[in-house]
Amino acid sequence: MPKEGTTAPAFKTTDANGEPVNLKDLRGQKVVLYFYPKDDTPGCTKEACSFRDAFSKFKKLGIVVLGISPDSEASHKKFATKYKLPFTLLADTDRAISEAYGVYGEKKFMGRTYMGVRRTTFLIDEKGKIKKVFEKVKPEEHASEVLEAFAE
Does the model's pTM come out above 0.90? Predict the structure, then answer.
């Protein structure tokens, strides 16, 4: 997993509308890159809605919010429409970005072990450096926690 102070791993992918997104193109802006396991599941919906509800604050501060999961563009489009998500969702269907950021791996839930995306958020500064890493995210409170970190 990339550490605070290191350069964020570069990536190119597509958003819910099939439009290309390249992290390099966001240089000069602050970026929240939050990884989540799956569209339209309880924890992921709470997390997405917390970012939705705080989105005007992020926008006012000039912060780009990007949610990313292994789901397809079509799944993201449906999820974003259903919950009126005003930020960009990125498709990582081959999990290459999740692996580059060290968030794809073994998980345990209810006594079961499986492979998946661990809920993790990276704050990336204007120079493309990782300012902060949040592991073991609490979905409902996460957006306000991220806003506080940018205020530091």
Answer: yes
Quick: pLDDT tens for 12-49.
999 999 999 999 999 999 999 999 999 999 999 999 99
Provide the annotated active-site residues.
44
Amino acid 83: pLDDT: 98
- 62 neighbors 26 (Cβ within 8 angstroms): no
Check residue 84 and give left, alpha or beta (phi > 0: left; psi -120 to 50: alpha).
Answer: left
Residue 7 CB neighbour total at 10 angstroms: 11
Please name the residue ranges forming H helices in 54-132: 55-60, 73-82, 96-100
CA 66 to CA 87: how far, in whole Å? 6
Quickly state the pLDDT bin for 141 (edges 50, 70, 90): confident
Q: Which run of H or E residues covers position 12?
A: strand 12-15
**Contact partners, residue 69, CB within 8 Å, separation at least 6:** 35, 36, 37, 38, 39, 44, 76, 89, 90, 92, 117
